[in-house]
Amino acid sequence: MADSLFKKYGVSLKTNDILFNTGDDGTEMYVIRSGAVRVVIRSKAGIDKTLAILGPGEFVGEMSVLTNQPRSATAIIEEDAELLVVGVKVLEEMIVHNTEIALRLVRKLASRLVAADSLIQVLLHRDANARVIENLKRLARLHASDDGASARFRVDFEGMAEQVGISVQEAEDVMMKLISAGFVNQDEGDWVISNIADIDEFLNFLRLKEQYR
Ligand code: CMP
Q1: Which residues face 191 on adjacent strands?
Q2: Ligand 1: residues whose CB is within 6 Å?
């Protein structure tokens, strides 16, 4: 991105600055030039649920601009950031004249929909065990080995609890049970699932259990 372009249309923000809040009117989107932006949903109790941490080359705030709806989430600067501000007119021009940008936008929105759908799957379960395991399956799919059989990824108990809407203690209890049952292992701070198919089978068993409860 040329410096002259940034001088004209750029903003520099500091860690913890609020870029916008859920419900604000949104007439601009932002392309991240450097730093990082955290996208969160704030519950009434004031608890944040992180939807994504976005970095250089990614964009945030495009949904309001495209749909003319209020901001669907809050964006907080995670790391000092330089952002290029893109208004409605410019975004529309970019989409009309640059198919590569339009395709990138569509792909990104489609993958957000896939991620949102799999999170709905997680939250459909009433049971904390099933929520954690469904989320492990989701993470395993995201971080699967080339043959798709195993996976290695990193998430702490706080992160897991926040992702699936249970307490940190519940998340820890379930993970410990899964370790003793041999479904997951810990290795140098990573979670390792050596056989994703086992997790699927266990999840089916829990689904049946929930149905007959
Ligand atoms: P907008 O609705 O304008 O404001 C909030 C922004 O957060 C939204 O545009 C997207 O850019 C971003 N956003 C919303 N949901 C997600 C998600 N699930 N993953 C990543 N980014 C999101």
Answers
A1: 153, 186
A2: 26, 39, 51-52, 60-64, 71-73, 75, 112, 115-116
- Domain chopping of the chain, boundaries: 2-97, 105-211
> What is the architecture of the domain spanning 105-211?
Orthogonal Bundle (1.10)
Q: Give, using CA atoms, the residue closest to atom 9 of ligand 1.
A: 61
Q: For 57-94, how does the pLDDT look when each residue is reduced to its tens digit (9 = 90+)?
A: 899 999 999 999 999 999 999 999 999 999 999 999 98
Per residue in 99-141, pLDDT (tens digit) is 998 998 999 899 888 878 877 877 777 788 888 988 898 889 8
User: Whole-angstrom Cα distance, residue 181 to residue 192?
Assistant: 14
Q: What dotted CATH number matches 2-97?
A: 2.60.120.10
Q: Which atom of ligand 1 is nearest to the CA of 72?
A: 2
| Closest listed residue to residue 205, CA positions, set 180, 172, 188, 183 | 183
